[in-house]
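User: Before I run my own analysis I want an independent prediction to cross-check against. Here's the chain; please return only the structure tokens and, at the end, one sentence I can use as a sanity check.
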Amino acid sequence: MTDPHAQTPEHGDHSAQRIYTRRFWIAFAANVMMVTANTMTFRFAEFVKFLGGTEETTGFIVSVGLLGSLFFRAFLGQALDTFGIRRIWLICATINMTGGLLMMTSSAIGLQLYLARIIFVVGLSGMFASSVSYIQSLAPVDRRTEIIGTFGASGFVGMILGAQLGDLVFLKFPNNSELYYVLFGLVFLFGFLHTALAFWLTSKDVHRRPEVSPPIHKLLVRYWPSSVLIVTVMMGIGFAVTMTFLTRYSTELGLSGIRTFFTAYAITAFTLRIIARQWSQSVGRHRLIAMGLLSHSLGHFLMTFVTQDFHFIMPAMCLGFGHALLFPCVVSMGAGAFPEQYRGTGTSVTLAAIDLGTILTAPFLGWIIDHYGFHSMFFVVSGTLGVVGVSYGLLTSKLVDADVLMHRKRMEREAKLRHSHSVSPADSRPSLGSVIQNDPKTSEACLRQ
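Assistant: Structure tokens:
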């Protein structure tokens, strides 16, 4: 089925196709707003502590929220395929803003706080799946890893902005309810700005509903690449640490906050995304995944040496390096395994698998912190990521990635086309130019190759 967002390649050269259009940059800005809001909620553990909870309580609330998100994702993918990106994107953005308001008005660890976290994360998952599904439609198959990676760089801009704003709020306001009114009020504001940009971006989109919508379990059995599952779970473990417990680690050490970590993390990841956006076509996604996992392992190990704010820089650089490599590779492999008409399902399932890693590990990591301390938690996470990284690298060392194969074929086609243009006029065969001029059908066929 034809993708309504797909662009026509110019002269058969996919590398020349302009994928960084105005639509891309509007989506880029919208993602900055969304990640800024989400990064400010990395202070959620401080809020739970303020309300009288423990680290294990925080882990449990986070897991419950993600469990709700995981249940929602079971229907999200097919909703995207059936009803279209625009409708689901705007509905989920509204849900997310509602969750922000409920967190802002929570005054105790109870039903409202649990519901607020669930609603916020459910909305966030839909917003993110919608934006990633949309952005993939702007590029040809062999450049999707590239455009996902470049688009993801917007998240690191939002991460810097959100971390700086979060720390600024904590510095300017005393540790009371007013602080959290301001914090979650800003979360709502950036969520609203994201919604406005998404509304503008998709205002002229027309959705084509697939003729057949198989149940999600049949799509999973047929298309889901099982090798991706273990990697997504490992990514979820890393996110459980950085997005939930890092703020408590900083507070326990008596440091000023988490802006140093997330600024170094985001700058590293942003820079690498720009530099390495086409590495998947030369190095291959399997090798990049192994490198990313090992970099994450090293980063969590280095966390145990932090005693001052600037000590966060080295582990942050390792974790930012790993994130920059892992996310676009995993999403393009997971979502790309599904046919075009079920791309929403593929994207949603892949992102859900990352959440699964956080759901399974956040309460356990919180329990380790409560009973054995932060350093023991970092050692467990580092060791697990290291073992999986080495194992994945060995198991996939002889595989040739599809991105590499498609890139080679494209380069061969381009070389043949250049050679055909360089044929001498004295050649007895008619030149490609004369054939194209004299035969419009041949011209059209060349342009479609």
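Sanity check: The CA atoms of residues 94 and 353 lie 24 Å apart.
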